[in-house]
Amino acid sequence: MPLGITFLVIRAIVGFLDQTLLLLPDAYQPDNFLGIHIPGLGVLLAVVLVLATGMIVANLLGRRLVNAWESLLSRIPLVRTLYAGIKQILEAVLATDGQSFRRVLLVEYPRKGAWSLAFMTSDQLGEVQEKTRSEVISVFIPTTPNPTSGFVLMLPKEDVIELEMSVEQGLKMIISMGVVVPDWEKEQLLKQQAQQKKPEQA
Predict the structure, then answer these.
(1) Which residues cross the membrane (predicted)?
(2) Which pTM does this prediction carry?
């Protein structure tokens, strides 16, 4: 079953990317040009487009074009609000030096004694920390099996428990509705073995 699902997902992705071939003029589309359909050419075209876009944006002219485009968007009332918000969220989540979605936490939610998995999204809450007069962190509690929706809570740091599992392991556990649980004991054993090897190598 996992192999079959993987095959179907890959086939769906390849089929979707093959639709990018429709961007080409009819005379230059592979199906018309070669006379046969070759699956996967859309993937190649998508890769070329991504690389070309990256090269254009990386140079001085590309940066000017991007700045001009963002300046245009900032003048459109509704688009300005949505674009700026989405851009800020993506920059915070994808930043390599950021704390967003780098730690898996255990929080008491939705009631005392009931525990939920959560992801730390920020520890710099400014006004919230000032008004609460405590060290508060922002956490995201995803729903299952769809982790893209959920709840944002601001909790005192002492009220959360940081777990050793990775974000990927946490997402697997949430998506599987708690069925796929990381083998914590095995990981602890591997860590102990690695620590024992270090003194021997020194």
Answers:
(1) 7-24, 36-61
(2) 0.54
Find the Cα–Cα–Cα–Cα dihedral 55, 58, 60, 63, rounded to 10°.
110
120-151 pLDDT, tens per residue? 988 888 888 888 888 899 999 998 888 878 99
Q: How many residues does the chain have?
A: 202
Going by C-alpha positions, the residue among 150, 148, 154, 169 that lies closest to residue 103 is 169
pLDDT in tens, 150-162: 999 999 999 999 9
The residues near 142 (Cβ < 8 Å, ≥ 6 apart) are: 117, 118, 119, 148, 149, 150, 171, 174
In a 13 Å sphere around the CA of 39, the CA atoms on its Cβ side amount to 7
- Round to the nearest angstrom and report the end-to-end CA distance of the chain: 47
Residue 198 has pLDDT above 70, yes or no: no
Amino acid at site 19: Q
